[in-house]
Each structure stands twice: as C-alpha cells, then as structure tokens.
Amino acid sequence: MLPSAAMTRCPHPSRAWFKAVQPALTSAPVLTLVLALAGCATQVPPPATKPASTPAVQTATPTAPGMTPSDAIATPLPIPRPPSEEVRRAFVVETAAKYGLDEAYIESVLARAQIRESTVAAMSRPAETKPWRDYRPIFITQQRIDGGRAFLAEHRDQLARVEAQYGVPAEVIVAILGVETMWGANTGKSPVLDALYTLAFNYPRTNLPEKIARENQREAFFRDELAQLLKMGKETGFDVATLQGSYAGAMGWGQFMPSSYRLYSVDGDGDGTRDLFNDLDDVFPSVANYFVKKGGWQRGQPVMVRASYTPGAIPLVDSNGEPIHTLETLAQAGYRPLEPVPAGLTAAPIKLDGETDEYWLTFRNFRAIWSYNNSIRYATAVHQLSQLIAAPAEVVAPVAAPAEPAAGQPGT
Hints:
Elements: H1 16-27, H2 30-38, E1 58-59, H3 85-99, H4 103-110, H5 117-123, H6 132-139, H7 142-154, H8 156-166, H9 170-181, E2 190-191, H10 192-202, H11 212-236, E3 244-245, H12 258-264, H13 280-293, E4 304-309, H14 327-333, E5 335-337, E6 348-353, E7 357-362, H15 364-370, H16 376-390
Parallel strand pairs: 1-6
Antiparallel strand pairs: 2-3, 4-5, 4-7, 6-7
C-alpha cells in the first residue's frame, strides 16, 4: 500500500464486510485468488470486425487480462532475459519523446526493475479456463454476497453520491471491487514495475507463425504500459518501483493498468491526489468513470436478459459482441427475450456453457462491464453478483444456473 493521509478513510480489514467474507479468504482454493486478480481495467485494442457468420452469438471463451485463449503457451518457455542495450536504449528514447519524460528519470527507474520468470509463467497460463457452470460458483458464493452487502451498507452514502453523478449503480461498483480484489484484501503482491518490465521485453511466445502478429501486439501493449507507468509516477508522485499489483501489472482496489489509471482515475475528494490504493473516495468514482468513459455505460438501462433461441429465418451478422441488433432482427434470427426490454434498445446475443446452454441478450451496459475484463463470463458474473448484493438479505442466492426455458417461448 502507498503511504497516504487518505489511509484513515480506508476501511480496516477488521470491519464487518471483511468479517463476512473472511471464511472464504482463509479456506478458498488458491484458484479463487488467481481468478480474482485476473480481471483488470485494461486498455486493450478493440478486435477487428469479423465477417458475417451463423449463428452470430458470442460464446464464453477463456481469457486473462487482455488475453485470448490463443495466448496460452503449450511449449517450454525460454528463460526471460533483460533487453539488450540497443533495445533498452530505444525504449528510453521513445518513452521520453512520447510522454515528455527525462531520460535520466527513465533510466533510474529501469535500473530498479527485475525480470521475473514467475510473471512469464503466470501470463502463459490464462486463469479463466473453466466453463460457465464451474466458473460461476467461484464468484457467486454466499460469503461474497454477504461481504458485498456489508460493504455496500458501510459505504452507502459515498456510493450513492457516485451513483448520482455517474449513473453506475452502487451494487455494480461493489461487485467489481469484490470480484477484483475482495474489497481491497487481495490487490496483488507482484511488483508492478517488474511485471511490466518483464512482459514488455519477454512476452511469452509460442513460435507459431499464425500467432506472431498477436504476440507482437501484446508485447507492444505491455511495453507501452511500462512507459505509461513511468509517466504515471511523474503525474501522481508515486514511487512506481514500490507499487504492488497483479502479475500483469494491474493495481489498486480496482486493478487498473497504468493507462487506465492515467485516463480514468478520479480525485474524488479533491485532495490533489488520485489514490486507488488507499482512498475509497477516489476508488469509487474511478471505477464508475471507467464504465462511463471507456465502456459507454448508460444510466438506468439494463445489462442483460435471458433469451430463448431456435434457429431463425435469417442469419445474424456477427457484431463481435457489440449490441447493434434490433429486437426485430434478433427475433427473425431466433432470439427472443424472456422478460420485457425497453423500447428502442439494441442488443447482442451470447451463449454460456451452463448445465445446459444459456442464451442471453446483452446491452451496452454489459459491454461496459466486458470492457473491464475481456471475458463474457466475467461480465456475467459481475452482473449477477451485483444483483444478489442489491437483493434483500432474505433472498437465497441461487447456485445453479436457471433452468433453460422452452425454446421459442418469449417472456411475458
């Protein structure tokens, strides 16, 4: 954690919300921690639009922060090494020019960075490999629901102010923080500088010709995140060599990558700092600001609704998850919502691999959650957890997915 006067405003782990989830923290499998830290608010280049295909429905695919399943490494990994003097020098010159930094400052920070084999190994094994029927129970647990309700009750006034300003429901912010870091309890123990330094110059390679372009893109992404970390240090006054976070370089309660920290973090209490490590007055509006500015969150609109599906009369153009289809078009393609949908909304269908196949229509606000972590399982888990956190305490949280409705029967 960073030293900050705002630490006095950060809830101590002995408070009620932590007590509510403490059993889960002490007895849950290590996988829970890995999956929780796998999500982050990261600036991932948007994927290219795919050609039309049938059926054009997004399916749950395993990912880690900004990753795709093809990033998984099946072959032995080479030992990561520091960049050559030529490559390092080119990075220093480019970063200084792009972000207006002094070369001596960049060199002084890089001198404190270390290459870590553990970072390459972690990035080579994406965590989210489970089907939805197994993924959901990891996050939708009674301990996490109870912890979220306690946290929401403790910070209701702060969250209500943020909701009024940004239009993002308090329970959604609470769910994100619960999934990402268990409300600040597990923000990661990897040195952020080392993680980004390692991935900037040693992103895992498969040596497969069809993956070279993608792997080059990912290494360039982390190289720029390293540069943005250096810029962030100058902007915030943080000693970036002391920051800790995830194996991918995500930081703080909301697990922001450096680019997201710079673009979307908010000084919520006007104290002159944007502290996402200790100051909840900054954390809450920063998460909401990310949803609005990066994800396009729409105030008062739904996230997703269950749907039925039977093959329709027309093929559906693949929108790559973008909610561009009218309900009329979706109906012609065989997708019908099982509950009312506000008039004029457009949607995109997804399919989840539950006990039986689950079809859903997703809206812009689903895409906003999806922008936080490139996984439709993640976005669905956050949404469902938020609903259960907001529900009355006497409501029993469902563990199994809801039964599949009869095909072709729209909701009333």
